[in-house]
């Protein structure tokens, strides 16, 4: 494999090989059903026997993102997390800050608003990223004691309750 004919040919071979690796990365991402960082995805690919470097994984993810094939969110440390974009368009997700699990959310109203803004502004090629994070049910601590008995707060202080009479 050490033959070196022309620089151009070597480049083409490299290109094909890179394309295959990137396709493999996309395949691993497609099978993973949660948001995943480049490093995690790299580890998953290697575990599957896909021989790729972390740099290739980063580039592949970047290409997927730029091609509109992946949705991206930032985790708390600012690391980019990727998830394949559904065929019918981009999706917004609710993501657990504790375990990272995610679920798609209905964002029709949001998309409508985005279209309205786009239509009424002079900006072109608008893009948006909206991410909702929270703590999923399994990650929530045991139900907090709602009332700890002694000293329940006196109501009626400044509470605008229903008008009397
Ligand atoms: Zn969770
Ligand atoms: Zn959207």
From TrEMBL:
Family membership noted in the UniProt record: Belongs to the Fur family.
UniProt entry tagged with the keyword DNA-binding: yes
Residue segments, region Disordered: 142-165
Full protein name: Transcriptional repressor
Domain of life: Bacteria
Subcellular location: Cytoplasm
PANTHER family: FERRIC UPTAKE REGULATION PROTEIN, ZINC UPTAKE REGULATION PROTEIN
Coarse class of the protein's main subcellular location: cytoplasm
UniProt entry keywords in alphabetical sequence: Cytoplasm, DNA-binding, Metal-binding, Repressor, Transcription, Transcription regulation, Zinc
Subunit-structure text: Homodimer.
């Amino acid at each position: 494999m050490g033959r070196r004919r022309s620089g151009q040919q070597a480049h083409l071979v490299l290109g094909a090989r890179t394309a295959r690796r990137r396709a493999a990365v996309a395949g691993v991402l497609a099978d993973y059903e949660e948001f995943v960082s480049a490093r995690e995805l790299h580890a998953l690919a290697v575990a599957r026997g896909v021989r790729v470097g972390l740099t290739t994984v980063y580039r592949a993810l970047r290409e997927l993102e730029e091609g509109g094939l992946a949705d991206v969110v930032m985790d708390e440390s600012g690391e980019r997390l990727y998830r394949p974009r559904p065929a019918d368009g981009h999706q917004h997700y609710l993501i657990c800050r504790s375990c990272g699990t995610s679920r798609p959310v209905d964002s029709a109203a949001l998309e409508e608003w985005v279209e309205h803004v786009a239509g009424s502004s002079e900006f072109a090629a608008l893009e948006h990223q909206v991410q909702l994070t929270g703590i999923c049910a399994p990650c929530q601590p045991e139900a907090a004691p709602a009332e700890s008995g002694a000293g329940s707060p006196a109501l009626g202080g400044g509470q605008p309750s229903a008008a009397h009479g």
